[in-house]
């Protein structure tokens, strides 16, 4: 149960539902047009790109270009990150959500009145009367630049939690830089073009926990949106739940234990002048099983202007901090935030 006076966590509602029949509270019920039961679904498979160092580099570049153009998301394998590390961050994340008491977890609560503050939370936006809530709890870690990294704000149990987060952060940054280079060259740009335009790389790692839900047909674990930054690198556990939009249909991204999912963000769409699209995606819930994912976001500094690399420009230049403020003001709703920049 919740600690008195503490913010409600989705996991507490799910635990109550396990003990007795509990309906989903009304603030978690999606409007009919957004409910997963009313969405189109397809059996398409998301692209898989092999980054093996011995592979033909031109073929790898071309496959990434095709995936970016057609999907805005793709799996990568032979990515250089050890499977042991992928398994370990899933393990320590699951331990935090499933083994610690609510009182222990709430010691790390984020500021509910500050969007994107570090720590343990449930709401993506500052509370409002008309907000529909996601069926999700999360822990957000600030990991790059190093000056933002403060492990004392992260859980210290299991004992290697902080060490795992730090190593995972380092490996994800290296992989993000490699993929950004491949995205750049796939468009005929220099391999460093996007990374240089990004300026100082900012990285957050968000471990999301989606408890089992008594009425999954009414809820979303994460409502439809596109990510704000350049690229997100995501891994899942063995429970399917992530969906990406493809040609107006929702495609479930099957979990692949040794693969990392690359999701293009809005700044990549802007800098490529819409040649590559950011991926609209969402998370659905499950009546029987909880689900865990780890998303690593790679964004520019808030002061960086982002503009198209090609002419004529289809998007207005935007300062990233202004884009973030607009996103949190309007809320995640498909791709309306980037659509507002179309010329």
TrEMBL record:
The family database entries (Pfam families) matched by this protein are listed as: 2OG-FeII_Oxy, DIOX_N
Keyword set, alphabetical order: Iron, Metal-binding, Oxidoreductase
Per the database record, which ranges form the Fe2OG dioxygenase domain? 200-300
**GO molecular function list:** metal ion binding; oxidoreductase activity, acting on paired donors, with incorporation or reduction of molecular oxygen
Family recorded in the similarity comment: Belongs to the iron/ascorbate-dependent oxidoreductase family.
Could you identify this protein by its name? Fe2OG dioxygenase domain-containing protein
Q: Signal sequence: where?
A: none
Listed InterPro entries? DIOX_N, IPNS-like_FE2OG_OXY, IPNS-like_sf, Oxoglu/Fe-dep_dioxygenase_dom, Plant_2OG-oxidoreductases
């Amino acid at each position: 149960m919740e600690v008195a006076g503490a913010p409600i966590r989705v996991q507490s509602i799910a635990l109550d539902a396990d003990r007795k029949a509990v309906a989903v509270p009304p603030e978690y019920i999606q409007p009919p047009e957004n409910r997963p039961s009313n969405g189109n679904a397809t059996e398409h498979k998301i692209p898989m790109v092999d980054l093996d160092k011995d592979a033909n580099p031109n073929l790898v570049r071309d496959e990434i270009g095709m995936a970016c153009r057609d999907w805005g998301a793709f799996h990568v394998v032979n990515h250089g990150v050890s499977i042991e590390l992928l398994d370990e961050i899933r393990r320590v994340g699951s331990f935090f959500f499933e083994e610690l008491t609510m009182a222990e977890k709430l010691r790390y609560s984020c500021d509910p009145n500050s969007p994107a503050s570090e720590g343990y939370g449930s709401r993506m936006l500052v509370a409002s009367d008309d907000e529909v809530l996601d069926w999700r709890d999360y822990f957000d870690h600030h990991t790059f630049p190093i000056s933002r990294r403060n492990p004392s704000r992260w859980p210290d149990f299991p004992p290697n939690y902080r060490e795992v987060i730090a190593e995972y952060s380092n490996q994800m940054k290296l992989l993000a830089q490699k993929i950004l280079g491949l995205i750049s060259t796939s468009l005929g740009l220099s391999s460093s073009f996007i990374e240089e335009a990004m300026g100082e790389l900012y990285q957050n790692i968000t471990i999301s926990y989606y408890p089992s839900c008594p009425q999954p047909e009414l809820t979303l674990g994460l409502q439809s949106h596109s990510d704000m930054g350049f690229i997100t690198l995501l891994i899942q556990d063995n429970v399917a739940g992530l969906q990406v939009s493809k040609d107006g249909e929702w495609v479930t991204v099957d979990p692949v234990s040794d693969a990392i999912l690359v999701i293009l963000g809005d700044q990549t769409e802007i800098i490529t002048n819409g040649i590559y699209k950011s991926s609209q995606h969402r998370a659905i819930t499950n009546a029987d099983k909880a689900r865990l994912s780890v998303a690593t976001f790679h964004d520019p500094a808030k002061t960086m202007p982002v503009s198209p690399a090609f002419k004529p420009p289809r998007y207005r230049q935007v300062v990233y901090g202004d884009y973030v403020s607009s996103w949190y003001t309007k809320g995640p709703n498909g791709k309306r935030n980037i659509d507002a920049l179309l010329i």
